[in-house]
Amino acid sequence: DRFGRAGFVHRVANSLIGRDGKKARGVIIGIVGAWGSGKSSVLNLLANELKQRDPKPVVVRFDPWLVSGRDDLILALLSEMYAALAAAPELQEKAKRFLDTASPYISVLGRVGGLFVPGLGETVDNGVKAVRKRIKAPGTLQQLKEAVTQSLLEVPVPIVVLIDELDRLRDDEVRTIAQLVRAVADFPHVSYVLAYDQRRVEEALGGDLSGNRNERRERGRAYLEKLVHIPISLPAAVAIE
Questions:
Q1: Which of 113, 116, 173, 195 could form a disulfide linkage to 169, CB 3.0–4.6 angstroms apart?
Q2: C-alpha to C-alpha distance for 93 and 111, rounded to whole angstroms
Q3: Read out DSSP for 27-43?
């Protein structure tokens, strides 16, 4: 930490996880800064900070810039969560339970097409095969979501999802991620951190090209305020000798 952001990262981590360290607070935090301001570095520091905690939370790193298509984004995020859970030997049964409940939820949301998540390896490949076997499932969308929620509540440690590079996406992809966080990733006892340039994301969330740029930004700002519980501007970097 050559730029003196350790204290900032520590406070963000405290906001994500309850005082007992056993459950996430279920909040969505936005790390807001211009391109090149060090948002990805802060997420790296945050991931390291969380891994030092006891009990150690499950940290899910998700970079939507590496994935294309709404359905692939949905499956990719849930697969990343599965992989992060399965990486801990003591949580592998919980990971299977999560996958079993998430699979029909994905199919009801209308998942079609393939999955492209580089670098996840055989663990997730096996999980994706299990997903593809469960194309139909009884129950309403709400019932299926409740089943996923219950499987996550059984996980005895916090789950924190870090989503980076939001401002590098096309406008339609930014809107897809926003919808994904609201409709798919809106599980209790899971906290989220989104890193983005606010001006860029506001313009993307503003919708089509009707109206001038200021009007689009106003629409996007209103949407973003509903999505992100705690927006935090990235503090200025101060070099530490």
A1: 173
A2: 25
A3: -EEEEE--TTSSHHHHH
